[in-house]
Design brief:
CATH class of the largest domain in chain A: Mainly Beta
Oligomer: homodimer
Largest sheet of chain A: 7 strands, antiparallel
Largest interface: A-B, 78 and 80 residues
CATH superfamily of the largest domain in chain A: Umud Fragment, subunit A
Number of domains of chain A: 3
Radius of gyration of chain A: 25 Å
Distance between the termini of chain A: 28 Å
Strand order of the largest sheet of chain A: 5-6-11-7-8-9-10
DNA sequence: ACACACCCCGAACATATGTTCAATAGAACA
DNA sequence: TGTTCTATTGAACATATGTTCGGGGTGTGT
C-alpha cells in the first residue's frame, strides 16, 4: 500500500468516525486536495482491488472499510493445547472473548486503579485496572468498590448479624467494620480485572 | 417510541450491519413494505426529532444511529477520587482505555487460560486469561508463553551464562532448566491479564 | 527506448437519492 | 355528521453522486 493510499484510507476512516457515514467521492476529492472525482474513483478502485475496502457499484456512500473477522468475533481463547499442534490451530481454540460486545454492554462501568496490597490474596495487585459495574446493591461475599467516610476502597462485602464488614484479602490487614454513623456507599460490583504490564501496548 | 418506529430503527441497524452503510429512503420503503419515499421521510423526521437518529439533509445514506460517547472513547479510568465528588465526576477520570483500539492492534494475539499456581506471586491465578502477543523473541526477565517438550507453560524467561531457565513465581516450584536437547519454543510475550470473576457478564 | 503502474485533470453522462406538494385514507373526537 | 390530526400515497423536482472518456504526467523496471 502506497503512502497516498494509506492517507486515503485514513481519511475515509476519520470521516466515518466524525459523521457516522462514509464520504462521497467528491468529498474525498476536496479532503485529499484533488480536483477531479475520477481521480478519486481510480484510487478507490485500487484500494478495493487490494481488498481493504468494500463498495457497491452505483451506490452512494457505500464505502465500507473491510474489518477483519477477529474484530467481530473477539480475541481467541486457547485452553488446553493438543500435543503436536501449532498453538493457534483450530482445535486449540476454545472460544472468543468479544471485547467489542463487552464494551457495548459496559454502560456506565469504569475502571478503578488498585492502590494497595489489601486484596493481594485474590490476585488483585497495585496498578491493576478493576472494572466496576455501578450498582447500589451487592450480595454477601461479593467483591465491590465502596466509599467509606469519603475514602474509596475495594473489598469483599460481608454482612453478618454483627453488622456489615469490608474484608481485605490479606492477613496483614484487619476487617473494617461499617458503623451506623459512618457515611457508607456501595459504588459498584467488581466484574473484571485488567492488568497491563509489559510494554508494546500504550494505552492513554 | 411506537412499534413501527422501533421496527424502522431496527431495520436501519440491521441493514447497516449487513452492508456497512445505511439504507437509502427507497430501500427502507421496500424493506418496510411501504410504497412511497415520502412516507419514509416522514417517519425518519419523527425519529430524528426524538434524537435517536442523526441525518444530514440532502446527503445520501447519511442515516447514523446516535451512539453514546463511551463507545468511541473507551472505558473511563478512575484513579484517585477527589474528596466529596461523585465517583464518575470529570475531575476523577484519569483517562480512557480504548478497548476497541486495542482489539484492532491485537493482530494475531490470543488469550491463554492459566492452569496452575506457578505464577501466583505475580498475581496470575488459575482461570485468568493471559493475553499473548506471538513473538519468537523475548527479553531476559520478561514473562512469556513457552512450549517445552510439547507442554505449554507461562513463566519468566531467564538467560544466564549457565543457560536458559523458566522461572515460576511461587517458591513451591523450582526453576525449569532448558537443556540443549529439549524441544523448546517461544510462543509469545505476556502483554495483559484479564480476569472474569463475578457473574453478570457472560462471555462465550 | 518501452511497458507498466500510479497519479491527476475536466467535461459530460446516467441515475440514485433526498425533497416537495397536492391528494387520499383512517382514526379520534365533538 | 363534520372536523381535525396524522399517516400514507404518487408524481414531479432538484441535485448529489457514481461513472465514463480522453487526455496528460511521473516514476520504476526491463
Amino acid at each position: 500500500m502506497t503512502n497516498k493510499q494509506e492517507r486515503l484510507l485514513q481519511f475515509i476512516l476519520d470521516f466515518h468516525k466524525d459523521n457516522g457515514y462514509s464520504p462521497s467521492i467528491r468529498e474525498i476529492a476536496k479532503g485529499m486536495g484533488v480536483s477531479s472525482p475520477s481521480t478519486v474513483k481510480a484510487m478507490l478502485d485500487r484500494l478495493e482491488a487490494q481488498g481493504v475496502l468494500n463498495r457497491s457499484s452505483g451506490v452512494a456512500r457505500s464505502l465500507a472499510p473491510v474489518t477483519s473477522e477477529e474484530e467481530d468475533l473477539g480475541i481467541p481463547v486457547i485452553g488446553r493445547i493438543v500435543a503436536g499442534t501449532p498453538v493457534m490451530a483450530e482445535e486449540n481454540i476454545e472460544g472468543y472473548i468479544p471485547v467489542k460486545e463487552f464494551l457495548k454492554n459496559s454502560n456506565g462501568g469504569f475502571f478503578l486503579i488498585v492502590d494497595g496490597y489489601s486484596m493481594k490474596d485474590k490476585g488483585i495487585l497495585p496498578g491493576d485496572y478493576v472494572f466496576i459495574q455501578p450498582s447500589k446493591e451487592i450480595s454477601n461475599g461479593q467483591i465491590g468498590a465502596f466509599r467509606l467516610n469519603g475514602e474509596v476502597t475495594l473489598k469483599t462485602f460481608k454482612k453478618t448479624n454483627e453488622g456489615v464488614f469490608l474484608l481485605p484479602a490479606n492477613n496483614e490487614f484487619e476487617p473494617i467494620p461499617v458503623n451506623e454513623d459512618d457515611s457508607f456507599e456501595v459504588i459498584g460490583r467488581y466484574v473484571m480485572l485488567l492488568r497491563l504490564r509489559e510494554q508494546g501496548y500504550k494505552f492513554m
